[in-house]
Design a protein that fits this description.
Beta-Lactamase, 5-stranded parallel sheet, 5-stranded antiparallel sheet, elongated, kinase, transferase, kinase activity
């Protein structure tokens, strides 16, 4: 059954339209028809209904077939147009056919209408298919030409004798010539003399040919993928190319680099090993095999973790975990079981990433540091022994000073003169201030420095106890920064504090009541010690530099020993001592 067609009938006589429809049904057409008489109706139907065929009378009261033909060609040029008229001259019919009418049928001979309609529809369909094919071919050619011209890879068409028949801009750029020049050349003109002759007749479909070509005095490598095409009795070669010049240079440079790397790895004393994230060895240098005392074949594919000392296994595994995170580098020292027993190996390990940024493997460069570790152990044992000895010395010095203090105490117990007893007690306090330094040192982890703030607090507690001071009557305010001092500075500094606090406790508070303020700060490289009290004022003629008391002479001597400066503000009774930390001086 034929597909239903849409028939537009331009006819002012309904009966004639019915006769046309009857004839079409008689011929077996499945159709729908619309009849129109006026131009506006006709235009609307052609534009909106889009009929498959138009059957038009020659002349209508308000319209005519010639105008209808013109409108049809403008709005729907592929739609067949057949004149169906009662009377039409032969000259007019020929003229209409020249203007694009498909056919004409006289009304008194409608038996020919079915044949004319079927032939018109068939020709229209063939014409449409041909047009579609032509447009597709044109589009295909445009795409091919665009692809041919725009591709960045050289694309060449050769004749069988090797002449350049067609090429794109990428070919010209590669060959470094003008189009006119290349059309006069053959591929053989560019091949190297020592290269094998180019045999185009042997080039088959799918073959890949790599050609070294000499261009402008420089050798370039062109890779061609061959597609032979038969054109009647002739044969052409269609070849798509790739410039391999840079790649080949890089490959040659890489080969040279790999050769240098191989020589470097195989001849260096440091061990080089490559392993995957699970610890499986992928590469082992000769030095690594030599240290382990095993062949390369037995090492490759094995896991190195069982060779790690049990005590070093956890830190080795932690190091491997760190290699999975930026910066993908770790440094590790562990013991490894070798042909010579356990050996200490220092490793510098780095992760290798693939092009996608994914972890691929690890490379480690190791060095045997067993002798160094043994030497370090000996040094550490020696240092520990010396540290114990030094602590013992500080302890014994403190004990000896306490013995001296005890002897002075025993000696003073037999003396009745209070002034002499006071002298003994002052000497005891000075000795104890030095002993306290040594006590802090042997109890500290640092045998060269002490926390001066903690030391001063303990020293003042001992002085208050020595003089029998009631802390509720005589109060001391301390504003001391956490200052660390070496023994060279701490001993004279502690003696200065001892003398100033002792003098204050002895002379400043006849009523046994008052306050002492002690402040220790650090400003840049200088230590600033301030001591003041609210007790009895100094005599008007008192001068620090001119006093002849033992305590003040000792203070001045100690300040000088510290390369410091002492000042006194008589108004608020404040001593200010400014000094720097002394550097250790070697004794002879």
């Amino acid at each position: 059954m034929e597909e239903e067609i849409k028939v537009l009938i331009l006819e002012d006589v309904p009966l004639d339209a019915e006769l046309i429809e009857r004839e079409l049904r008689k011929e077996g057409f499945d159709f729908t028809s619309h009849r129109v008489e006026r131009e506006e109706e006709y235009r609307s139907e052609v534009e909106k209904w889009n009929p498959h065929i138009i059957l038009a009378d020659h002349s209508l009261p308000q319209f005519d077939g010639v105008s209808a033909l013109k409108i049809a060609h403008e709005q729907s040029p592929t739609t067949p147009f057949i004149f169906v008229s009662g009377k039409i001259g032969e000259e007019f019919a020929v003229e209409m056919l020249k203007k694009g009418a498909t056919d004409y049928v006289l009304k008194h001979n409608l038996s020919k209408l079915g044949y004319a309609v079927r032939r018109a529809l068939t020709e229209a369909q063939e014409h449409l298919e041909k047009k579609i094919a032509q447009e597709a071919l044109l589009e295909s050619e445009k795409k091919y030409r665009a692809l041919f011209e725009k591709t960045k890879n050289p694309t060449i068409v050769f004749t069988e004798d090797g002449s350049f028949n067609d090429f794109n801009q990428a070919t010209l750029d590669f060959m470094e010539v003008e189009p006119e020049e290349l059309l006069q050349q053959k591929i053989h003109h560019f091949t190297l003399p020592e290269a094998s002759p180019v045999q185009l007749k042997d080039w088959t479909a799918g073959r890949i040919v790599e050609l070294p070509l000499k261009i402008k005095g420089e050798v370039k490598i062109l890779e061609l993928t061959i597609t032979p095409v038969e054109l009647g009795d002739n044969r052409i070669i269609f070849a798509t190319g790739r410039d391999l010049t840079h790649q080949k240079r890089m490959e040659n440079a890489l080969k040279e680099s790999e050769e240098k790397y191989r020589l470097l790895v195989e001849n260096q004393t440091d061990m080089v090993v490559k392993f995957d994230p699970e610890g499986k060895v992928l590469f082992a240098s000769p030095s690594y095999c030599e240290v382990l005392g095993r062949t390369e074949e037995s090492i490759l594919g094995s896991n190195f973790l069982p060779l790690v000392h049990q005590d070093d296994l956890k830190k080795t595994q932690r190091a491997l975990e760190k290699l999975h995170r930026p910066p993908y580098v770790v440094f590790l020292e562990h013991r490894l079981l070798t042909m010579n027993g356990w050996r200490w190996i220092a490793w510098a390990d780095k992760a290798i990433m693939n092009e996608q940024g994914e972890l691929e493997a690890f490379v480690g460069v190791g060095r045997d540091i067993t002798e160094r570790k043994l030497a370090e152990d000996r040094i550490m044992r020696s240092l520990k022994e010396k540290e114990l000895l030094l602590r013992e010395i500080h302890h014994r010095v403190k004990n000896n000073l306490q013995i001296v203090s005890t002897l002075l105490s025993l000696q003073s117990s037999k003396i009745k003169d209070q002034k002499v007893i006071d002298l003994y007690r002052e000497s005891q306090n000075r000795i104890l201030s030095i002993a306290l330094i040594h006590e802090n040192l042997y109890q500290s982890e640092d045998l060269t420095n002490i926390n001066f703030a903690s030391y001063v607090k303990n020293l003042i507690d001992d002085l208050f106890h020595s003089y029998g001071v009631d802390p509720n009557q005589i109060q001391i305010e301390m504003d001391i920064e956490e200052v660390i001092m070496n023994i060279e500075t701490a001993i004279p500094g502690g003696l200065i504090v001892n003398e100033l606090i002792s003098n204050t406790l002895k002379h400043a508070f006849p009523q046994d009541q008052g306050k002492i303020h002690l402040e220790l700060t650090k400003k840049e490289d200088n230590h600033i010690l301030k001591i003041r009290d609210n007790g009895k004022p100094f005599p008007e003629d008192f001068e620090v530099a001119e006093t002849d008391t033992l305590g003040m002479k000792l203070i001045l001597n100690l300040v000088q020993q510290l390369d410091g400066k002492i000042t006194l503000n008589k108004t608020n009774k404040e001593f200010t001592i400014e000094f720097k930390e002394l550097k250790y001086k070697e004794r002879i």
